[in-house]
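Could you join me in thinking about how sequence relates to backbone shape in a protein? Would you write everything just below, so we can both look at the same thing?
***
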Amino acid sequence: MMISWNEIKQRALEFSKEWENETREDAEAKSFWDGFFGVFGLTRRRLASFEEPVKLLKGKPGFIDLFWKGTLLVEHKSAGKDLDAAYTQAVDYFAGIEERDLPKYVLVSDFKRLRLYDLETQEQHEFLLNDFYKNVRLFGFIVGYKKQEYKSEDPVNVKAAERMGALYDAIAESGYIGHPLKVLLVRLLFCLFADDSSVFDVPGIFRQYIELRTNTDGSDLGAHLTMIFQTLNTPKDKRQKTLDEDLATFPYVNGMLFAESLPLPSFNSAMRERLLKACSFNWSRINPAIFGSMFQSVMDKVTRRNLGAHYTSETNILKVITPLFLDDLRQELEACGKSISKLNSFHDKLSSLKFLDPACGCGNFLIITYRELRILEIELLKRRYGVNQMLGFDIANLIRIRPEQFYGIEIEEFPARIAQTAIWLMDHQMNELASETFGKNYSRLPLTDGAKIIIENALTTTWENVVPNNELAYIFGNPPFIGSKLMTKTERKELISLFGEDSGAGVLDYVSAWYIKAARYIQGVSIKCAFVSTNSVTQGEQVSILWKELFRRYGIKIHFAHKTFKWSNEARGNAAVYCVIIGFACFDCADKRLYEYEDIKGAAHEVKVKNINPYLIDAPDLVIEKRSKPLCEVPTMSFGNMPLDGGHLLLSDNEKIKLLEIDLKIAKFIKPLVSAKEFLNGENRWCLWLVDTKPEEIRQIAEVMKRVELVKEFRLASKAPSTQKFSATPALFRDRNNPDSAIVVPRVSSENRKYIPMGFFGKDYIVSDTCMSIPDATLYHFGVLESEMHMAWVSYVCGRLESRFRYSKDIVYNNFPWPENPSVEKVKAIENASQTVLDIRAKHQGSSLADLYDLLTMPPDLVKAHQVLDKAVDTAYTKRSFSISTDRMEFLFSLYQKYLNNKD
């Protein structure tokens, strides 16, 4: 059992007093360092050796004064000698030390002074021997203490995962695979961490045992590991009296971590070397919340190439749990003041809270939550008892937050095992923090039952069987980011089974299923929930399907939300996901918070609001459902023309030229094609438009016939009966809408434009299915659609393709609330402003619409013209002015509700 910091300080004072007058290196240095380790309650012989032989760069022999492999190198000099020279001499020894044995610290001394070099952080600390007691925490590594700094992108976590990846590869390649390998790796992870922290009473005992007690060829390593695991699983009073002395030093761990019997693994020298290399790493520095996900990724060599892309950063986890409960708990602690009764009651509450992550993966959310609760508890204890008063109490009786308060559901075995183990690791780090804070050592061994992580499918298992809902306080997590078009058949079936066959749920993202499961589970209780979700659940047609169900059937109310932000990290090649966070319950709350992002990659700012609807704005709880016809009296929007041709009726500039070189008669069949890409970028594309063409004219031109034949083959080869049906008319597009005049709207447009560029086209142009078409529309209609008012509607109601707008006629256009009975003068003002926009566009010949509407390159005259148009449209709606898009959206929702009520 490790001694407390207070006792270490007292021993350090006594040590300094004993050695204050010593000066002779040769005579007393060894006794000095034996006493130094004794300050920390350790026997030097178990850790380090004197006069360790080593070869210097030029092959000459050297002798290290004191060497603890992989941890500490000491160079000692007589009083008054140069410590810089001592450090240089110490570093010279590195050339003769194996990489895995290189120290993490160098300590030089001349009896009077001690200078410690931390080679990982490049920090240097020097102090007089008399001040040793003030600096004992610098040597926390000797007893396994390590200050934790939680950095999401800390390379130490990547390096640790890479070491585990190398070990995994070596063991898997030997044929030791599947469940036994997963259990073995998790056990080794625990031992590696325990070796470098204060879990094991003797630091480095696991590494020393492997290094000194196993054959270099690895032939007996599997057997020795099995004996270590059995020892760790056996209470000390139940161990054989004849147990090997080195094995007997290992503590009893329990927690069922080492209970299962595994097949005996077989090792060779290379595998043993990889294990020792893993042992040489400083595992006390890993962040359990981050490392767990990285550890999981080592199982796949492909994902391993991008370590760091497979975890949820602490910043994003805190975005979920801070407004869900941390803020409230911190405020509650502040409200307790110094009242002992209130602090006791609050402590009772903290120790009774239970948490569930129903898609827990490697436990990131649970681990960070556990850490934050333990930090809160430490602050509570400091206020309740005071740091100094704690000396009179048994700290084990005061720490009441336990891993058993945490529950998870995970479909895969390996991450579930990592999650449970990682929570134990975080528990230990928090015990160390408590020990440092109160000056009394506290370690939770043997382990308790730990967090309850169930290996099940969260969508098909009964959550009540994991933890009864009347015992739970909070649900949170990050369910899988799987879009509706990327789900497997099984995943889609799971989703639809929760909504019903006729619900239209097939278009929903996979995360929607967790909302429904949670909504059912929390009925009749006061559980609060929060999920990270793809932002699609707050856009387009998904809103009407998911949130109508949540509102009407389950009475869900949104308590807080983060608007769309970019969920990514610094790992190269990491595909960004655009997310929202939604906190909800089946009861309402007074204080609602909305977190908005001026930059989706930046920080959020909090806004207090009256209500949060599914589009994440301060407006009533309504959903925009599909409409087959426009809400207002405006022209009908339709899809452009789908060729369904395999590309055989479409032509580039070069293909058009070549066709005309073959036969000029083809010219009358070629028309310009308006597709979104070409329309926005000022490029040309063409098509063979054979509507109303006589059959004999088609047959007379071989090149045209050849293309028509290829279209027929393409359609017949399709597995879809609907496509095969159109093989009967292979000369024609599937759709054939060609009005005299129409406004063209690209179906997909960049979110980095203030307006979606639209334009007028006549009968000579064929609008493709990458655009929408509004036949018989006027300049008035163009102006309203090109306005900031319409773009506010688009930005909230429109679906997304990644982050780009994906325009929908049934959701966006047909539900859009147009100005209510605008006067002739107001309509005329919009028409005039619209024409000005079109005229200025025409002035900028050579610039594409993409150039003209890029936020960084939009010409000043076009900016001004749109500002005039925006004002004209705003005036047609109302006399009030709008400062931000949310103001416009609140107004439009109110108008939309009014139109709906009038129709009813």
